[in-house]
Amino acid sequence: MRVAAATDALSRAETKAAEAENAVSEYIKSQASAFKEDARMATKVDAATAEVDQARHRLQELNEQPTAQNAWDGSANAKALGALTDRDLNEVRKFSKPPHVVRRALELVQAMLAVADGTESLPPSGTGDVQWAELQRMLARDDFIRQMLTLKPAALSARPHLLTEIGERWPSLQEAAAVAAANDARLDAKVAASMAATALDGLRKSLEEAERLLSSAIEAVERRRERDAKWREGQAERDEAARRAAQAEIERDLASRTARPPAAWLHEHHIKEDLSAVAIEFATVSASLPADASNSLAKIASELRSSVTLRLHIAGHVQPDEDARLASQRAMNVGGLLIALGVLPLQLRAKGYGARAPIGPGEKRRLGLKSLRRVTLHALAEVRTRTPCEFGPGELAPLESEAVREMVRAVAALMQLDEHKEVRLSVEGHSDDHGSAAENVRISLARANAVCRQLEGLGVDQARLVPHGFGAAFPIDDNGTEDGRQHNRRVEFLVIPTCFAAAVRSDATAASTGGRGMGEGLSSHLSNRPGVAKVLRLF
């Protein structure tokens, strides 16, 4: 039994010895691993110490260079830092749990500012809310940006032991800064290249668009020139056809009379019966043509084109509570549409009568009107003469000849016949195109006045004569020849419609008492705006 007990004790002893040997073996292994870790850590410490030494050496170099601060102030980083606003900082402060890189960057800034302020120890580093609150308070300081911009290397290098600690906390600071700078440089280069390419592409497109617009403009100018040339050619042909037609009608009229026709006679024009009741009604306080006016005026224009000697009076009116000037504007707009439809301006006379020519209920019903806001159209009669009333160049009196004197006497005699005692004449003077527009209007009006004085001397009441001067706006012949200019220096006689004679007479009376009559007002109007007469001839 004692042997068995000893054997058991020996077995237990051997087991314990084996466990002890295993424990020793594990301890030896652990000591070896710790030695390796210590060696690795020592290597890291040596590397960090070298980085700190390099940083300290670099700071000493910067302190020895007087322009180091200026270089920082002018760097892109300094400009970017100076561009920060309170709004930018507030965005960072709003983080409840900031990204790790943001926290680490702000901790570094906090540490550097602490060193510059003269502290003997660095602020603690960590991830707690207390440490983040400290960083938020740092960002909220009013002088935070100024402190960053005025941070000097000398203030940092004065405490090398703190710089060593900074190097231990951020061992790869310089390497990361160098990599970031290189990345920024490459990015700036790429951005600059992209912007340059975009600018060049935009310039190329702009040049292409400019070339296209220039080409279109040149084509448009060429088309316009061609249209203008065709229009001038066609207008000359139309004017010549109108002159020949008018002359032929006069000759036919003369041939239908006695072997020796009178020196002057009244010739009446007539418009078709179905067009005699045409009236254009306007909206209140408006001179714009109504939508349904085109159809009626198209029929009028067709008849005027077929009879170039037909003269049409366009009379504009307003209601008593409207501006009287609307009457003239309405008449002008109707005339403008007729000209656009191919009517010669020479065939039209337009005048605004304000509210001075009212009509009764029966006439309103006949014209289909609901108000007095209207334009009415009337065929005009004219006094024709066997001998034209023509003038020499620059002369204000008619050519001296027995035929001309006989013509003037015949017009005066015609006006004094009982059957024509209510007739009132628009005495219209014209000139050739030599001289300025204003001078031609003045001369043409003077010629009309000269003929009026001759008629008054032969017994015609001045109130029955209204002079007008149209300058060279309405030639009846070619101003390129002497004979053509001679024909254009003339005076013609149109009969004022009886229904408007009183209104025209009041205009003439206003002119004689110092006001502006039709002749005076029109001549001033044409001298100030000679181009208007080429659009519409006023009556």
From TrEMBL:
InterPro entries: Bact_OuterMem_StrucFunc, OmpA-like, OmpA-like_sf. It comes from the Eukaryota. Residues 3-65 form a coiled coil. Residues 225-255 are annotated as: Disordered. Pfam families: OmpA. Residues 273-383, 375-499 form the OmpA-like domain. Keywords: Coiled coil. The keyword Coiled coil applies. Residues 225-243 have a biased composition (Basic and acidic residues). PANTHER family: LIPOPROTEIN YIAD-RELATED, STATOR ELEMENT OF FLAGELLAR MOTOR COMPLEX. This is Outer membrane protein. It comes from Chrysochromulina tobinii.
